[in-house]
Design brief:
Number of domains: 1
CATH class: Alpha Beta
Strand order of the largest sheet: 2-3-1-4
Order of helices and strands: HEHEEHHE
Structural class: alpha+beta
Radius of gyration: 16 Å
Low-confidence stretches: 1-12
Length: about 110
């Protein structure tokens, strides 16, 4: 297959975009941030993970967001069941001001 045709076929495949939002209880910003950073490398190695980027709100240092792109819902569900993510959930439960918020999004342009 010519390179241009391959690129077009890969780009045409749909992907799943997710924003995962975490808010730390006051005083727990650094600890939560450290636990979130520990998720990055193992998650990027997971099957189906196309992008996994951690961001912090410039005005609220305890407000963290992951921008994620996955090949499918099944791969995202496998991530949610992975040992490193379930360990994170256990370790972070007392640090969160509110439950994890997940937003599924579709690219407009």
């Amino acid at each position: 297959m010519p390179a241009a045709d391959y690129t077009r076929s890969v780009m045409a495949e749909p992907s799943l975009t997710v924003f995962a939002e975490f808010r730390a209880k006051p005083g727990n910003e650094q600890e939560l941030g450290g636990l979130l950073r520990r998720l990055i490398e193992p998650t990027r190695q997971e099957r189906g993970c196309l992008q996994y980027e951690l961001h912090v709100d410039d005005e609220q240092p305890g407000h963290f967001l992951f921008y994620e792109t996955w090949t499918s819902m099944a791969e995202l569900e496998a991530h949610a069941a992975s040992p490193h993510f379930t360990d994170f959930q256990t370790r972070s439960a007392h640090l969160l001001a509110e439950p994890l918020r997940i937003v599924f999004a579709s690219r407009v342009s």
